[in-house]
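G.,

No rush on this.
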Amino acid sequence: MREKHRALRWVTSSREFNRGESLTVASRIAFTILLLATVALGLFGMDRSLWLDEAWVANSLRTPTLGAMFRYPGWLQTTPPLFLLLERVVVALGGISNAALRMIPLGLAAGGVAIFFACVRRMAALPIAALAAALAAFDPVVIEYSRTVKQYSGEFASSAALLAAAAVYFRTPKLSAFKWLMAALVVTMPLSYASVFLIPGIVLGVWSTGQHRRAAGLGAAAAMLLAILYVFCIRPNYSPLLREFWSVSSERVSPMVATVALLLSIAALVRFASSRQPALLVCALPPLLLAVSSKLGWYPESPRAWIFTMPCLGWLFAMLAEEFLARRPKVMNLAWALALAVPLLAAWRQIHQHRNLPTEDLDGAVQFLREHAKPSDLLLVHASVKEGFEWYAAADGFVNPAPRYGSSGWPCCVRDHLVAPRSSTRKAVIGDLESLIPAGFTGRIWLMYSSRPTQWDYVGLDEGNLWRSQVWAMGCPPEEFRAFANVAISPMYCRDPVGARRQSRSTDK
């Protein structure tokens, strides 16, 4: 008997394969290529220096207790708890290294691709499934966060796992399948806060199958788990400044990408109205809910925030393409060509754009200081690079000279220094700098600060250059300037005793 939900059945086309064995071999080959390409692109730049956002996550892993990790004293902890636990295990077993920290993100990315392809292959012809998986897995933002110590590859994997569990249940709505769906929900929500965007569609999908009690139970379990996460993890790490930061500093999703995603979701909802295929509803709602939440300022409108929607959009593409295009041989040939071209183009872009190089070379900067700074020198570390300095100083055993940290120009969102965008003032920066330099000091002063333009755009003043010019005005001219990727080190030498307070006041006037 023909199954009720055509988009969820295993498709075998005699025009493409003469034997079932050939289909299995071809699927395995496609699966292997996708997985190897995902890992290879993730490994490109695996050992590059952490940047600011990664550094504070890494520092939170070294806190003495789990409570301190979940409520990191230095930063608003926006990273989901299960991702932190996985990373903490890696640090405990593998020690401190850039590559070790990135094993979890890469593993989650590879797992997400594997789950997505295995699931979408059951409801679409192999060329379409391969193309859908390639489009989802080799998006430049997805690749970038497969080697970044942030939770976004976990969001990709969580979406893929929830969709797979939902697909199994919709295909065979037995109690055992429902238990697996419930288990997927319990595991993915602590790994990905973005999972909440998939829950409404899944609950409605289960409801549409006539299992109202199960739908209600699923919704109740999700609500209870979300309440627990909110009380213990989300609320203690929330500030209204996060929303302001998103509105001021977040990179926007390409209008073309957003338009295509929304049109695809709308087309799926229209198709659902006539076909009643619950998978269409499950995949169509998350991009729409995310778009609405972003416009209302509830959730960041940035490319990385859309990563969790990639399995949904890939699945929608596969379902719609299978229904309307799968019986056309020329279309299948085109799908094969595109499925091969997408990872090749992605690899070319990664190499051409030098994506293996660090966003902020905090590692290189700290190593340079360790080799050149003397115990008698004065080391001033700006707040913009404090987290990165602390992480690599601990990793490299850097103890002398002891750093003095600035207290102005903090990035968003340091727990005890929640500053509004563009709130930096020249007077406050100079006053803070004066307090760091002892009056009468002679010798070398090392200045370490961020040179990332977005940092100074956020605080409203280039404090790094102000530090440098002000110390120069105190009678300490610069020596050879050292520029790393978005990090600067400026040695200044004070031959005569510094009268910091008197000279800085006269300069300010």
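When you get to it, here's the other one too:
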Amino acid sequence: MNCNVKLPKSADGLPFVSILISNWNGEEVTDRCIASLLEFTHYPNNKFNIIVVDDGSTDNSVKFLRQKYLKRIDLIALENNVGFIKGNNAGIKYIIEEYDPHYILLLNNDTQAMQKDWLKKLVETAEQDEKIGMVGLKLMFPDGRIQWSGRRKESKPLFLIFQTISAGFNPGVGKDEKEANYASFIGEANTASGACMLVKTELFRKIGLLDERLAPMFGEDVEYSFRAWKSGYKVVYRGDVDIIHYESYTIEKFKKELQNKKTYWALRNGMIISRTYFGFWKTLVFGLPIFAVAALLDKKDKSAGLKIRNMKFREGAVKNISLLFKAMHDGLLCRKCLPETQYENSCSVQ
């Protein structure tokens, strides 16, 4: 496939979009997600499709989804649980090989569409400029408060390194949408959220898939955003488009088993991303204090903003310090542990 050839639009000018959802033991939330897409996505039915990658679920997900959505979705059932990043990469490869759409929209299964024109607005934004590679939107808690919003693109390493591990300083987080109109800007941003981000298929061909150094999860959206704008593409945030995100459904469902791993993955991946894009010394000088704070402190109210009065010490200081040093070793100090890059090269997705 020639990566320099721009795909033709359909006869009526609307580009085709494939929506990719990753599921792992999430029968109920995935059902709710798909149902909301079918109800609220006012986009021609012949111009979008839904693909679900089941990541080795052990519940009734595969059987249920096949029976209920037999003619509405493509279901890719992986034999083993490979993690969020590798599962999405398997789905992206399948979509490009089978459908070759103009856009692929990565969507978490614990999301719920609530605006009829949400997809149309994202596509319209992406179509304005051939250099727009990714478009993100605003994530909302079910109670109407802002969970995630875009932060205008900046160049200061301190804030960008902080972005690798938290979006807590992004506009309006934890506030009512009516009180935070500044979170509804439309323009270039540091990152798009992987919970719902529209990506031009051309981008996957030119700069590769999600970075599997970060497997199984965390930070892949930040890394891909940084890689996109480093490669000359724009990452755009559209704050007037909302979607509900129930956030970390899988982590909360398996909290006891995954809590320590979650902290380690977040710290390690933040260091990998920072080292890749800002170098070892900036990561050490600017990043280490950030990662240390993230290892030792947590928010009292997960749905509130990142403020001093909302912070508390994590339980098990010794354990958390140990996780920090392991993450430092694996993500920053040990060059042999992880290669500099581990994603598909240009044109490798055929």
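Residues 1-11, 345-350 have pLDDT under 50 and may be disordered. The first strand starts at residue 17 and ends at 23.

Enjoy the weekend,
O.
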